[in-house]
Amino acid sequence: MAGNSQEYISHHLTNLTYGKLPAGYVRHNEDGSETELTEATWTMAHTKQEAADMGFSAIHVDSMGWSFGLGALIMFLFWRAAKKASTAVPTGFQNFVEMTVEFIDGTVKEAFHGRSALVAPLSLTIFTWVFMMNFMDLIPVDVLPSIFGLFGVHFMKVVPSTDVNVTLGMALFVFALMIFYSIKIKGIGGFVGELTLHPFNAKNPVVQAIFIPVNFFLESVALIAKPISLGLRLFGNMYAGEMIFILIALMFSAGAFMGLLGGVLQWGWAVFHILVITLQAFIFMMLTIVYLSMAHEDH
Amino acid sequence: MNINATLIGQIITFAIFVWFCMKFVWPHLLSAMQEREKKIADGLDAANRAERDLELAQEKAASQLRESKEKAAEIIEQANKRANQIIDEAKEAARTEGARLVAAAQAEVEQEANRAKEDLRKQVSELAVAGAAKILGKSVDAAAHAELLNKLADEL
């Protein structure tokens, strides 16, 4: 049972990976036999180890697919609402879309003290997209992997925000925007000055020269910590949430009583998770706004 | 939990969605919402203005009604006054006309009487001359006695 559980958990936490296995790589087949690859091969990973051995050039097909699909879905819905938007009385879904837009517009106006045509749509994209990706967490953990299993797909991790690549990717994009706007607004000199002249400065040029590397070190750490914490916060929350769902799902196979208890826990955790997924989407958006607002501030 | 090309894929996907949202979603929605907001504000303004206008119009109508009632009363009063005046004037005119007619009639009567008297006087003097001539048996030269006759006629 213990080995089984471990396998179950590990299976659920492995992405469907497509990548290149090097020549001479020994694949362990399911029936225990071994195949040695004669040349480098692009293929789907059959085991966790293979996925890890594929290195950086591999891609998580499930994360990418769900992430793109959900983003495209929400963008399509909002685009359709935007096309239908008129000054007439809004109804149904239109109302919901406008409520979201108004909420985000208000938040951006409150937190962002610059002028930018990018920040508000960026925030809308982040909020809706991250929400959609997190929302996949509420679908019982075995449903989609079982359906895909029927079609011979080995692994299926349906919550893209439990993939650190996805969350860090978004955080890095935000980081790139931060750097871009810092340089655009303050100039290269201003940006470098911000990195080297704070928090310590002195009137004496010699002392100042000594302070510069110290400041640079401190500020660089602070700067780089922003995208890392942004990405890892979302990842950590969603990963932990997913993990608990998986652990609860384990209980279903442990008798009627445990199954019932698991059902109750599943329901409770799901209700709690509605709050978590919304909150995490909001936090990601809010921090992005704040970081970009800081990038726009000229001292 | 491997860091791999998914990272790059996600960055590209993110950039595409942000671009799409910025280009096709956000501006349309926001402009439609702002337009509607403006329209509603205008509508409310118009309603307020209409209410105020209605109030003003009612006030104006009431004051005009009052004014016109006053004016009407004044006109009636004036008309009455004027009618009385006209009647008075007509009465006065009739009276003076009557008086004038009476005076003219009297003058004519007097004149007529005077003429009759004159005639009589003339006839008397002629009669007197004729009488005298009969009495004297010869004609009296009227011209020679004209002074005497005139004196006589005047005495009559």
TrEMBL record, chain A:
<keyword id="KW-1133">Transmembrane helix</keyword>
<keyword id="KW-1003">Cell membrane</keyword>
<feature type="transmembrane region" description="Helical">
    <location>
        <begin position="271"/>
        <end position="292"/>
    </location>
</feature>
<protein>
    <recommendedName>
        <fullName>ATP synthase subunit a</fullName>
    </recommendedName>
</protein>
<dbReference type="InterPro" id="IPR035908">
    <property type="entry name" value="F0_ATP_A_sf"/>
</dbReference>
<dbReference type="InterPro" id="IPR023011">
    <property type="entry name" value="ATP_synth_F0_asu_AS"/>
</dbReference>
<dbReference type="InterPro" id="IPR045082">
    <property type="entry name" value="ATP_syn_F0_a_bact/chloroplast"/>
</dbReference>
<feature type="transmembrane region" description="Helical">
    <location>
        <begin position="64"/>
        <end position="82"/>
    </location>
</feature>
<comment type="similarity">
    <text>Belongs to the ATPase A chain family.</text>
</comment>
<feature type="transmembrane region" description="Helical">
    <location>
        <begin position="166"/>
        <end position="185"/>
    </location>
</feature>
<comment type="function">
    <text>Key component of the proton channel; it plays a direct role in the translocation of protons across the membrane.</text>
</comment>
<dbReference type="Pfam" id="PF00119">
    <property type="entry name" value="ATP-synt_A"/>
</dbReference>
<keyword id="KW-0812">Transmembrane</keyword>
<keyword id="KW-0375">Hydrogen ion transport</keyword>
<keyword id="KW-0813">Transport</keyword>
<keyword id="KW-0472">Membrane</keyword>
<feature type="transmembrane region" description="Helical">
    <location>
        <begin position="244"/>
        <end position="265"/>
    </location>
</feature>
<feature type="transmembrane region" description="Helical">
    <location>
        <begin position="117"/>
        <end position="136"/>
    </location>
</feature>
<keyword id="KW-0406">Ion transport</keyword>
<dbReference type="InterPro" id="IPR000568">
    <property type="entry name" value="ATP_synth_F0_asu"/>
</dbReference>
<keyword id="KW-0138">CF(0)</keyword>
<feature type="transmembrane region" description="Helical">
    <location>
        <begin position="205"/>
        <end position="224"/>
    </location>
</feature>
From TrEMBL, chain B:
<keyword id="KW-1003">Cell membrane</keyword>
<keyword id="KW-0138">CF(0)</keyword>
<keyword id="KW-0375">Hydrogen ion transport</keyword>
<keyword id="KW-0175">Coiled coil</keyword>
<keyword id="KW-0813">Transport</keyword>
<keyword id="KW-0812">Transmembrane</keyword>
<keyword id="KW-0066">ATP synthesis</keyword>
<keyword id="KW-0406">Ion transport</keyword>
<dbReference type="InterPro" id="IPR005864">
    <property type="entry name" value="ATP_synth_F0_bsu_bac"/>
</dbReference>
<comment type="subunit">
    <text>F-type ATPases have 2 components, F(1) - the catalytic core - and F(0) - the membrane proton channel. F(1) has five subunits: alpha(3), beta(3), gamma(1), delta(1), epsilon(1). F(0) has three main subunits: a(1), b(2) and c(10-14). The alpha and beta chains form an alternating ring which encloses part of the gamma chain. F(1) is attached to F(0) by a central stalk formed by the gamma and epsilon chains, while a peripheral stalk is formed by the delta and b chains.</text>
</comment>
<comment type="similarity">
    <text>Belongs to the ATPase B chain family.</text>
</comment>
<keyword id="KW-0472">Membrane</keyword>
<dbReference type="Pfam" id="PF00430">
    <property type="entry name" value="ATP-synt_B"/>
</dbReference>
<protein>
    <recommendedName>
        <fullName>ATP synthase subunit b</fullName>
    </recommendedName>
</protein>
<comment type="function">
    <text>Component of the F(0) channel, it forms part of the peripheral stalk, linking F(1) to F(0). The b'-subunit is a diverged and duplicated form of b found in plants and photosynthetic bacteria.</text>
</comment>
<comment type="subunit">
    <text>F-type ATPases have 2 components, F(1) - the catalytic core - and F(0) - the membrane proton channel. F(1) has five subunits: alpha(3), beta(3), gamma(1), delta(1), epsilon(1). F(0) has four main subunits: a(1), b(2) and c(10-14). The alpha and beta chains form an alternating ring which encloses part of the gamma chain. F(1) is attached to F(0) by a central stalk formed by the gamma and epsilon chains, while a peripheral stalk is formed by the delta and b chains.</text>
</comment>
<keyword id="KW-1133">Transmembrane helix</keyword>
<feature type="transmembrane region" description="Helical">
    <location>
        <begin position="6"/>
        <end position="26"/>
    </location>
</feature>
<dbReference type="InterPro" id="IPR002146">
    <property type="entry name" value="ATP_synth_b/b'su_bac/chlpt"/>
</dbReference>
<comment type="function">
    <text>F(1)F(0) ATP synthase produces ATP from ADP in the presence of a proton or sodium gradient. F-type ATPases consist of two structural domains, F(1) containing the extramembraneous catalytic core and F(0) containing the membrane proton channel, linked together by a central stalk and a peripheral stalk. During catalysis, ATP synthesis in the catalytic domain of F(1) is coupled via a rotary mechanism of the central stalk subunits to proton translocation.</text>
</comment>
<feature type="coiled-coil region">
    <location>
        <begin position="40"/>
        <end position="130"/>
    </location>
</feature>
<dbReference type="InterPro" id="IPR050059">
    <property type="entry name" value="ATP_synthase_B_chain"/>
</dbReference>
